[in-house]
Amino acid sequence: MGTTFDSLLHGFSVAMQLDNLWYAFLGCVVGTLVGVLPGIGPLSGISILLPVTYGLNATQAVIMLAGIYYGSQYGGSTTSILMRIPGEASSVMTCIDGYAMAQRGRAGAALCIAAVGSWIAGTFGVIVLTVVAPPLATLALRFGPPEYTALLVLGLIFLAYMSSSSLIRTLLMASLGIMLGMIGIDNMTGHFRYSFDLNELGDGIGIVPVAVGLFGLGEILSTPSINVTGEVIAPKFRDLLPSRQEWKEAAFPIARGSLLGFIVGIIPGSAHVISSFLSYALEKKVSRHPEQFGKGAVAGVAGPESANNAASTGAFVPMLALGIPTSPITAVLIGALMIHGVSVGPGLVNDHPDVFWGFVASMYVGNLMLLALNLPLVSVFVTVLRIPYAYLYPLIIMFCILGVYAVNNSIVDVWIMLIMGMLGYVLRKFEFDPAPLVLGLVISPIFEQSLRQSLIMSNGYWTIFFERPIAAGLLIVSAALLGLSALSFVMNRKDWRDTLAEVEAGEEKAS
Amino acid sequence: MMLRADHVAGAGFVAFGALVIALSGDLPFGNLSMPGAGFLPMLVAILMILFGVILMARAGESQLFANIRWSGGKHAVLVILITGAAIALYERLGFIITMMLMMIGFLVIIERRNPVRALVFSAGVCLITYIAFEYGLSTPLAESPWGF
Q1: Positions of chain A with pLDDT lower than 50, given as ranges
Q2: Residue A302: count of CB within 10 angstroms of its CB
Q3: In chain A, at which end, N or C, are there fewer CB atoms within 10 A of the end residue's CB?
Q4: Chain B residue with minimal CA distance to A169?
Q5: Which of A52, A179, A451 sits opposite B137 (nearest CB)?
Q6: Distance CA A500, CA A495 (A)
Q7: In the predicted model, is pLDDT for residue B129 greater than 80?
Q8: Residue A313 near residue A125, CB atoms below 8 Å
């Protein structure tokens, strides 16, 4: 514990350097804007701005990109509360009671509770991350190829199980992603696979063009500007303080949301979306006045907003300790660190203490910055919402092209982005969630390598996965989750995932 | 039998899986003790076909294919065409000219905005972005044959 504390102090000495503070601030501002603007999520925001970090060192780059990530969680609540439009997916639940509070003239209080809840949850998440990540990394040093294979299988199954769309749809998307991830040179044998004599495809398909295409361009293609209304409820600064009663009603939901969000965040999948939904359901269940939910219940804002922020911090645990991306966003962050020559995994704590601890410490600072930014500057962010969508989406497409091209100076990447945009549009029409596709693409190389190495190690015997306790344990959990899904399918039972899908569909219609 | 969305989607995945298997002909599959470059692609393609068939079998739960709303289709096609043209010109005309033309295209052709306002907005945004990236962030952007 003492060593952790000393290391954290070292992290603060890195994070408090003027240039690092500047990049944390920049990340927080951009992240808040990304969260505020509908049609551009944290994944597109981080991907587009990735090339900007090329001139920075690894610590500065990850501090800025992570600032965008958790900043977007704060910003997403603004549009949800003021316009009933979720700035990004995890703010869907905040729309319900946040907007109802705004209609009752309590928009300022709702924004303040969301910001304070986010800050408490974010800080709580960072404290637990500080304590949990280093020992977990030490444990992960015992992981060999079979354990990594089993862990990735569990990640995929968990994602499919937790997803609000069906198990088969999620597995199909993940398979498509894994398939795309196999394009290019096979690292183990040197064979070119599906590159059709295009040199640019030799290195494979990058995460950035796929993510920007599916989530940035795909969203714009699905959103004609006539469908976007610009009516905003603008709160006054003096109305920002909640009443004593509202603070009282928010306290326990914030605490519960923080804990629940962090736990869900560690699990692979779109954790921050799921965490806010689970928190809303929990608050409604434990409330003495469940009938107030949907009509402006404070707990309906405090719980989900705290949960999605804690989840975004929780998602850093497997990324930093195991080097495994649990979401497309952490995958892009891992990619960013690799571009700067830092390989993420169990060795990160010891090999690059400046990056690891500087990053962790910057999150304490970043969360404070966000609290200071989000409340006084809410009217500035509201002004951004008044830009007509007709002018906004050409800007976003320009940044998509600029960002994707700048990664490798490759026009083929930009064409891939356009194709992925079209694919994203079609997938949305057929009600497929594209997130598992990106996750599949990211884990594809690690998964293939660890699976083939495991089979070579065992001379072709699949039993190697059951002879090693950690791998066997992980596979048993995977089988149990598959069994639970099959049971729910056979019994034709409605569970929380169906309810989440219904809520998401309802909010889309309402907005 | 009514054609449903998941019938079409499932058939699409089955066809894609079959295509991958057809394209994997020259990749060595290897064996279990030494898996080759075609090992995992074949495995995933078979799984994809299997999942596609299950999706088709359960298609009764999905909406009718004819009921899929393509109302934003015209907007999407126009955005794709203009973006495609911009990508084709990007390395030839450089960032400023291409992006300006693209944004004017969006604003005038799709959004029916005033052409003069569209020109001023596009030129301003492109110039500010160019200066910010080239000089502020030291990120070089595609240049035109005229050096900007």
Answers
A1: 511
A2: 34
A3: N
A4: B55
A5: A52
A6: 9
A7: yes
A8: yes
**Distance, CA of B86 to CA of B95 (rounded, Å):** 10
Residues of A whose CB is below 8 A from B129: 398-399, 402
| The amino acid at A165 | S
Kindly report the pTM of this predicted structure: 0.81
Chain B: residue whose CA lies nearest to A420:
B80
Q: How far is A251 from chain B (nearest CA, A)?
A: 42
Strands B30-31 and B34-35: antiparallel
- Residue among A459, A456, A195, A207 at smallest CA distance from B27: A195
DSSP letters spanning B25-66: TTS--EETTEE-TTHHHHHHHHHHHHHHHHHHHTGGGSPBGG
Contacts with A, B 6-65, CB within 8 Å: 6, 8-9, 13, 16, 20, 23, 27-28, 31-41, 44-45, 47-48, 51-52, 54-55, 58, 62-63
Q: Where are the domains of chain A?
A: 2-236+248-510
Residue B2: how many CB atoms within 10 A of its CB? 10
- Which pLDDT does position A132 carry in this prediction? 84
At residue A318, the pLDDT reads: 80
CB-nearest to B90 from A55, A182, A405 is A405
Q: How far apart are CA A174 and CA A168, in angstroms?
A: 10
pLDDT at B26 over 90: no
- Please tell me what DSSP assigns to residue A57: -
Q: DSSP label at A17?
A: S
- Express each pLDDT in A455-473 by its tens digit: 999 998 989 999 999 899 9
CB pair distance less than 8 Å for A51 and B139:
yes
Average pLDDT, chain B: 91
ipTM rounded to 2 decimals = 0.94
Among A126-130, A332-336, B2-6, B17-21, where is mean pLDDT lowest? A332-336
- How much is the average pLDDT of B46-72? 89
